[in-house]
Amino acid sequence: MVKIIDGGVTAANGFAAASTHAGIKKNSTKDDMAFIFSKVGCVTAGTFTLNKVFAAPVKWDKARVYSEDLARAVVINSGVANACTGKEGDDACLMEAEAISEALSVPVNSCLVASTGVIGAQLPMTEICNGIKAMAPSLEETREAANKAAVAIMTTDTKPKEVAVEVELSGKKVTIGGMCKGAGMIHPNMATMLCFITTDAAIDKKLLQEATSAIVDDSFNMISVDGDTSTNDTVLVLANGLANNEKIVSKNEDYKNFYEGLSYVLTELSKKIAGDGEGATCLFECQLKNAKTKQDAKILAKSVITSNLTKAAIFGHDANWGRILCALGYSGAEFDPEKVDIFFESAAGKLQIVKDGVATDYSEVEATKILSQNPVVAICDVKDGEYDATAWGCDLTFDYVKINADYRS
């Protein structure tokens, strides 16, 4: 059973956080660097962007996560992505890790780094290294420290994104907490997002990676804001074992319970990103029911939430179901359009608008009332099998264009 608690990256035993204003962003006084530290070594797992153009921190972290046994720290900066920066960008990652190592007396290869912001700019290493020195002595295992770290990694996000839960494993309380950032350039495989999960669970590294990869495929790879995939996308999971549960080394009941907790955290963080899409006014969810295969279900659900015409209709509170049926039709997945049922649902109620591919005699007034809430759910039942999938996006608004027209200025 998953128990939801108030927390972020410091919720689990042994994790501390810090943040600082290093001066990376022009004309900003907001904190722009964050630090996560575990007092003991952590087994790690990670997933990363599939964009062939990937940032230097992605290269650094992949090498550490997949090849090193343990990690101790993560430093994150906003403002500059350290992407498309050549050898100088790679050297910057090493310099960061060396600065972390010196500040905390931990091995260089146990230090992870992440960046988000403008592509093509070099990291200001004087500011970065000074920021690391400033944060190291102020690391705290407090709720406030976690929240400040979540704020520091924001770019065009309008709010910090944190989730934490407790699960019971072999009679021990285990905590899983995390934070993420992301609002634009959000699309499956993955998105312009950074996500950091900390847990005091004791778990085998290979099983942690397997669980993380599978859950990311059903969470972060099922969200979209604008169809763009970034260069820096990273999910890192750190497990330090301080809950003293019996170490998970097989897919037993403890593994299932841990998986459920991690799935909740990653899915909720995914929804927070989709709902905070640049300029968005609501989270838009598509529940695809009864597809022939799991892959078909995922393809169909994602096709609906990535349709710009559908997203614009959601913004206008317009029950333009034809756009949804059209998006299902060009998805590439197999289904019979004459069997499809479509419903809209929100806090204002649930309404069937299509039955067997044809409009019902629904009330436009009632539909508008339902579509005026946040979140809005479209339920599409293709009645062709037994597989379901859910995807998350947001409405498409005037403000999305405004935000991205002057992102660098």
UniProtKB/TrEMBL annotation:
<feature type="binding site">
    <location>
        <position position="409"/>
    </location>
    <ligand>
        <name>substrate</name>
    </ligand>
</feature>
<feature type="site" description="Cleavage; by autolysis">
    <location>
        <begin position="191"/>
        <end position="192"/>
    </location>
</feature>
<keyword id="KW-0012">Acyltransferase</keyword>
<dbReference type="Pfam" id="PF01960">
    <property type="entry name" value="ArgJ"/>
</dbReference>
<keyword id="KW-0963">Cytoplasm</keyword>
<protein>
    <recommendedName>
        <fullName>Arginine biosynthesis bifunctional protein ArgJ</fullName>
        <ecNumber>2.3.1.35</ecNumber>
        <ecNumber>2.3.1.1</ecNumber>
    </recommendedName>
</protein>
<dbReference type="InterPro" id="IPR002813">
    <property type="entry name" value="Arg_biosynth_ArgJ"/>
</dbReference>
<comment type="subunit">
    <text>Heterotetramer of two alpha and two beta chains.</text>
</comment>
<keyword id="KW-0068">Autocatalytic cleavage</keyword>
<comment type="pathway">
    <text>Amino-acid biosynthesis; L-arginine biosynthesis; N(2)-acetyl-L-ornithine from L-glutamate: step 1/4.</text>
</comment>
<feature type="binding site">
    <location>
        <position position="278"/>
    </location>
    <ligand>
        <name>substrate</name>
    </ligand>
</feature>
<comment type="similarity">
    <text>Belongs to the ArgJ family.</text>
</comment>
<keyword id="KW-0511">Multifunctional enzyme</keyword>
<dbReference type="GO" id="GO:0006526">
    <property type="term" value="P:L-arginine biosynthetic process"/>
</dbReference>
<comment type="pathway">
    <text>Amino-acid biosynthesis; L-arginine biosynthesis; L-ornithine and N-acetyl-L-glutamate from L-glutamate and N(2)-acetyl-L-ornithine (cyclic): step 1/1.</text>
</comment>
<dbReference type="GO" id="GO:0004358">
    <property type="term" value="F:L-glutamate N-acetyltransferase activity, acting on acetyl-L-ornithine as donor"/>
</dbReference>
<feature type="binding site">
    <location>
        <position position="181"/>
    </location>
    <ligand>
        <name>substrate</name>
    </ligand>
</feature>
<dbReference type="GO" id="GO:0006592">
    <property type="term" value="P:ornithine biosynthetic process"/>
</dbReference>
<keyword id="KW-0055">Arginine biosynthesis</keyword>
<comment type="function">
    <text>Catalyzes two activities which are involved in the cyclic version of arginine biosynthesis: the synthesis of N-acetylglutamate from glutamate and acetyl-CoA as the acetyl donor, and of ornithine by transacetylation between N(2)-acetylornithine and glutamate.</text>
</comment>
<feature type="binding site">
    <location>
        <position position="192"/>
    </location>
    <ligand>
        <name>substrate</name>
    </ligand>
</feature>
<dbReference type="GO" id="GO:0004042">
    <property type="term" value="F:L-glutamate N-acetyltransferase activity"/>
</dbReference>
<keyword id="KW-0028">Amino-acid biosynthesis</keyword>
<feature type="binding site">
    <location>
        <position position="155"/>
    </location>
    <ligand>
        <name>substrate</name>
    </ligand>
</feature>
<feature type="site" description="Involved in the stabilization of negative charge on the oxyanion by the formation of the oxyanion hole">
    <location>
        <position position="116"/>
    </location>
</feature>
<dbReference type="InterPro" id="IPR042195">
    <property type="entry name" value="ArgJ_beta_C"/>
</dbReference>
<feature type="active site" description="Nucleophile">
    <location>
        <position position="192"/>
    </location>
</feature>
<dbReference type="GO" id="GO:0005737">
    <property type="term" value="C:cytoplasm"/>
</dbReference>
<feature type="site" description="Involved in the stabilization of negative charge on the oxyanion by the formation of the oxyanion hole">
    <location>
        <position position="117"/>
    </location>
</feature>
<keyword id="KW-0808">Transferase</keyword>
<feature type="binding site">
    <location>
        <position position="404"/>
    </location>
    <ligand>
        <name>substrate</name>
    </ligand>
</feature>
<dbReference type="InterPro" id="IPR016117">
    <property type="entry name" value="ArgJ-like_dom_sf"/>
</dbReference>
